[in-house]
Amino acid sequence: MPEWLNIVIRSLGLFALVLLLVRLMGKRQTSQLTLFDLVTVIVIGVVAAAISLNLIENPFNGLAALAVWTLLPIGIYLMALKYKTVRDIIQGKETVLINHGKVLEDKLLEARFTPEDLLSRLRQKNVFKVADVEFAMLEPNGEVSVLLKKQNQPVTPASLGLQVNHESVPQTVMLDGVIMDEPLTAMGLNRNWLHTELEKAGVAPENVFIAQVDSVGQLYLDLFNDAIQVPQPKTKELAYATLKKCQADCEMYALGTKQPKAKEIYSECAEQLDTVIAELKPLLKR
Known about the structure:
Strand content: 5-15%
Strand order of the largest sheet: 2-1-3-4
Number of strands: 8
Radius of gyration: 31 Å
Order of helices and strands: HHHHEEHHEEEEHHEEHH
Structural class: alpha+beta
Largest sheet: 4 strands, antiparallel
Number of helices: 10
Shape: flat
């Protein structure tokens, strides 16, 4: 057998083997790899390459090395799940770099961070002034977590005392012009509803690239032909306007009638609608 063909066969076999070994070691993004993870992956890659190129005379020795560098990390990971001491040794500990707005120079030295490194990591978090930072911590994977001072934190509905409703995940009901019945059924809808909405938008089904329905039943469309302007959904606005109109009508009827009983009923309905509108406003006015 030619040497090049032998190398190809070994490489294909090792590719499948290494893929299996990496899957056994668990799923981690590259940005989440610790130093120990990185060393393990590099060693496995080097050993696999050496076996592929026949740099190791006895392939079984190489396979034994692969087994050690796979099973040992798996065992250590399992121990790390149970014992914090093992986690601290393998993954390392967090390092506080900024505490209560003060940069800790000794911690920077301990983490082998220069001031330029710290400023660069802060800029990556969209923080350009050290004075805005209340707390910064270097994570074991090398990422810097930043907590801004209270006055510099982004405004949220909670900080404004506003209540917002939960929103479910939008369902994709069309992909590449094909209607997907299962997501439609999950939303309590059907094809007739979808075709009606497409007719309202003046869009042919075969021109729809992606169609999604949100938690309040609004249909969002992306078309193959980007030159066609699709009207934005108005379901929330129409529902809010309809409720306000009903409340105004009840108030008007209460003022216009001369019958005490009818006036009481209309006033009560107006109050109930006002309560409903107040509860739904965070959802309908977003």
